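Input structure tokens:
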């Protein structure tokens, strides 16, 4: 990491302004070091950033309380952008702001690539009340004409699967985290989507926020359970079909 920065600095000094532009373009295409990202996640950095695993776990699933978001499998571009937004003040958080400010651009690229590349399970979570999930599904899939809200899936993909690299998945994200981040947009503490998420969030009532959060928390588990049942049924049906032949 240090070697990369020293190498870039030497090229800038040797090549002048034109060399600076060329070098920056090359730096932007540099592949992140995933193993270094794993070290940052587990150990933190020499500059003072603590291990990401303290809150988000080494595998990026956090602790299922919803106090901290699930990171695993979000796109590297999205994760890196959020860290830059914490550092710049577009997102404000007493924990994340100083941590992001202690990370170098290389650190951000490396740890984002690490968490984006992990494959970790979605833990089973207690689903919300049926009426709450029904309202959440309506907002997610259809939106609300009366409130002039488009469906969440319109941006976040079918069943909240995400639209990488820019838009995160919501399916399987913790309800408490979804609630808290929507409230941040409502209160103006999160400023990195002023023309989209801030507008939508301010049209949602408290019940709407709770409903859509509860829906997205359980939707992935529901889909996976349905797929498992279909797979099991097909295995069971195969011998019966063969016996009839």
């Amino acid at each position: 990491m240090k070697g990369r920065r020293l190498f870039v600095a030497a090229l800038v000094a040797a090549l002048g302004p034109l060399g600076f532009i060329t070098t920056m373009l090359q730096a932007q295409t540099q592949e992140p070091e995933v193993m270094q990202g794993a070290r940052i996640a587990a150990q933190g950095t020499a500059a003072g950033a603590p291990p990401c695993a303290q809150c988000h776990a080494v595998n990026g699933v956090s602790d299922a309380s919803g106090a901290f978001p699930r990171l695993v499998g979000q796109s590297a571009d999205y994760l890196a952008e959020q860290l830059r937004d914490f550092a710049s003040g577009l997102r404000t958080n007493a924990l994340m702001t100083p941590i992001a400010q202690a990370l170098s651009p290389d650190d951000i690229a490396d740890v984002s690539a690490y968490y984006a590349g992990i494959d970790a399970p979605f833990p089973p979570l207690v689903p919300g009340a049926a009426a709450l999930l029904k309202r959440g599904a309506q907002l997610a899939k259809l939106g609300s004409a009366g409130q002039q809200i488009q469906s969440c899936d319109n941006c976040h993909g079918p069943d909240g699967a995400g639209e990488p690299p820019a838009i995160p998945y919501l399916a399987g994200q913790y309800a408490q985290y979804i609630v808290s981040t929507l409230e941040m947009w409502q209160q103006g503490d999160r400023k990195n989507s002023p023309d989209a998420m801030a507008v939508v969030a301010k049209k949602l009532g408290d019940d709407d926020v709770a409903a859509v959060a509860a829906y997205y928390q359980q939707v992935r588990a529901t889909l996976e359970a349905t797929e498992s049942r279909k797979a099991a049924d097909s295995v069971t049906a195969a011998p019966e079909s063969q016996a009839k032949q």
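The domain at 130-240 is CATH 1.10.760.10 (Cytochrome Bc1 Complex; Chain D, domain 2). The longest helix spans residues 206-244.
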